[in-house]
């Protein structure tokens, strides 16, 4: 029998329903895997007791013949989701000791569907980063290695812990958040599937905010079907989030028909950026060819504002972050570093509580909102954002979905690109426009780099058309036949 | 309009007011926490109000309705699309580090209000805008020698900031504006106007100029919490500015505080130290979009407001505009008046309310909602007066007894035997005995000292313990004293 940690979410669901194993068994296997994966530093907080208690409830339900959508399935939760009674750190020192008395809507939806919480996954501090190196709880290691090179690699970020855990079989699936690529880029780096749903598809209530107009929760899984299953459980209108969309949630799993015949696939010419490695260019072409042979029709499209997306993003996201993070002031919860005066207490607390990247973005955000700069930066960036959204609107008159690479490179080593924030920001060049336009984007592992590292392709869809995105992703997945595993498998291979 | 006579000539005072009016609502603007005044510190705080991580605001529909009603009551434009912005600054009683307010696109635009001035004149004052925003919490600096305590009960409570045009020209006008605004808010039921509890607070922008000159530099006096203080603060501030300029100085744009103890204002922070609030649209909230049909429904449901009511009282009850103005200032007194006046002599009802009733309320320190004599009870007394059961003079005593005992007019008249004597034989007897006793005075009267007439009336009333019908007494005396 395959190790229980090797199963896909869908296969584990079937196994539980067929009573091939119990929720307790699969949970225990995962608790062991979580412990074995500690060298990756993928989890900040492990919750084995809670996992077992939840598994017990699942087994009781399954014994009664009830079965919820995710009954007994062990998951990793990015430590940006507030979890009732379980420390929630956002990867920051400033939330030291903070335990929320409430449960985020998305995780509550998962628990209501019977899922089991393994623990809180590591992440870049306040989800700010593309390498998971800014966490106060230390960097996360990618379970993959370059061929013939044992240097540790970054898992991508900010949902690096979630991605590493899923790739290393230390969770059946995970949830992450994506503000500029934080689900899709680590999914690409770790050879898993990552879906950023349409803005408004999943509630943001109870997710520690980074940039409110961009943040969106989504699944990180080992295949497209699992992502569909997860999204069906996570999504839904939430009256507690004013930006949550009052739209029905389809059964996303049912959308995976493998039929993409006649679909027009937009290929944006502006995504052929300078310095993009040839292997990524080649993989992209490969993806186009696969979809073509499956009966889809590639069409060249133009997204002329693409080159302004990254600059606009690095104004809007820090602007919102500078305001969202103002609440971490040492007054009510988390870290307080005393001072002689109120201002000194603020300064001490925030200087010691926030890491360098968070401080940088708070400063940038404060600057671009300041009197005299607001029009030149923030307002202009918002205009660019509107133009980017219009680009996509125009493009979607000519195509049904868009295919691009997920990231301009494979995973890099811990230590690389660390001294140049702008080089780091370039990781998000293909993912950021999707957040600015609020669209769904899916990263699917499609091949390997020359060094033997996974590379993802990104499918972008119309707002609230995750079904088409998943259907196309499913076809790429089955055609690519990506079945490779990382070097590090928690608890060893089956 | 009052001007300040300085050494260099007359100065005009230019005043604009920003009023923060707490919305009457059981829940806060963006959370379900309660808003009651006087709760135990931090007993009415949700995780949203305390800005816990991941908490999101959701607009309270009732507060929006209250703001729209207020806008309609101020004859203002209702903006069908408005936007909530974040006003960013750090302070311990501002948990999120920003206040959710409306900056460039408020829910209510330009409106107007008519002031009733002391000399009976009226004046129109422009309303610039009304917007919705959150209140902050309260910092308590006096509970600990070195630390500040924070009470977040008020944090997140809905406020309407109502901004006037700089159309006011004196402290008196500012006072009249606030009284009128408070009256309208109370009529609408959108703010209780209670300044002691902080439900109505005022920032005063004051500048001075020579007549016809361009506007001078203004100072803003923050958070003044009574109408009297507003008037004091403006008077002081205007004189301060006149002296400053006439002594060769300049007015600096700054924020000042009113010191109620000394009746003065002092500098709080200068323009250079003004906050940069870094306003931007709150990404947690969508633009607030109103339906015109809904606004129209609210418009139709508005109560009659003070100006309209005053005009109707003048027209239908023939009251003077001044009397009508006094009665309509509070909805409760207007209602009281109408209940008493219905089917009776309205002028008489007005006089009784504004004289005896208001006097009693003042003495007892009560408001009209808690009047010791109900409108129905006062009406009964007026009925007794009209049908001659009591005389005008005794009615005053009956009313005093009603205030004191809470009993009805009829009961008091019966109990104390105050029924008016209209039996002409009894009155004639009393008249005869007075005239017989005072024969000297009768002679004087007849020889031309006619002002003695009142003396005779008084003696007859005294003899009848005030119960004789005065008209009958007068008629009889005239007849019998005739030469």
Protein structure class of chain A: alpha/beta
Query: What percentage of amino acids of chain A are in beta strands?
Result: 5-15%
Radius of gyration from the alpha-carbon trace of chain A, in angstroms: 21 Å
Following the backbone from N to C, one meets helices and strands of chain A in this order, namely HHEHEHEHEHEEHEHEHHHHEHHEEH
Q: Please report which band the strand proportion of chain B falls in: under 5%, 5-15%, 15-25%, 25-35%, 35-45% or over 45%.
A: 15-25%
The residue-averaged pLDDT of chain B reads 93
Give the terminus-to-terminus CA distance of chain A: 9 Å
- The helix/strand class of chain B is alpha+beta
Low-pLDDT regions of chain A: none
Low-confidence segments of chain B, ≥5 residues, pLDDT <50? Answer: none
Mean pLDDT across residues of chain A: 96
Largest sheet composition of chain A: 11 strands, mixed
Count of DSSP helices of chain A?
15
Helix content bin of chain A: 25-40%
CATH topology of chain A: Amidase signature (AS) enzymes
Number of DSSP-assigned strands of chain B: 16
Q: Which term fits the overall shape of chain A?
A: globular
Which tags fit this structure?
heterodimer, A: 494 residues, alpha/beta, Amidase signature (AS) enzymes, 11-stranded mixed beta sheet, 15 helices, 11 strands, globular, B: alpha+beta, 3-stranded antiparallel beta sheet, 16 strands
What secondary-structure arrangement, pairings included, does this model have?
The complex is a heterodimer of chains A (494) and B (483).
Chain A: H1 9-17, H2 23-36, E1 43-46, H3 48-63, E2 74-78, H4 105-112, E3 116-121, H5 160-167, E4 173-177, H6 184-190, E5 193-196, E6 217-221, H7 224-234, E7 264-268, H8 278-293, E8 297-301, H9 306-324, H10 342-353, H11 356-368, H12 375-398, E9 401-405, H13 421-425, H14 432-437, E10 441-448, E11 454-461, H15 466-480
Parallel strand pairs in A: 2-3, 2-4, 7-8, 7-9
Antiparallel strand pairs in A: 1-3, 4-6, 5-6, 5-10, 9-11, 10-11
Helix pairs in contact in A: 2-3, 5-6, 7-15, 9-11, 9-12
Chain B: E1 4-6, E2 9-22, H1 61-73, E3 81-82, E4 85-88, E5 98-101, E6 111-116, E7 122-134, E8 138-140, E9 149-151, E10 158-164, H2 171-188, E11 200-210, E12 219-224, H3 227-246, E13 254-259, E14 264-270, E15 280-281, E16 288-289, H4 292-300, H5 306-317, H6 321-328, H7 331-341, H8 346-364, H9 375-386, H10 392-405, H11 409-416, H12 424-437, H13 439-446, H14 453-463, H15 470-481
Parallel strand pairs in B: 12-13
Antiparallel strand pairs in B: 1-2, 2-10, 2-11, 3-16, 4-5, 4-15, 6-7, 7-10, 8-9, 11-12, 13-14
Helix pairs in contact in B: 2-3, 5-6, 7-8, 7-9, 9-10, 12-14, 12-15, 14-15
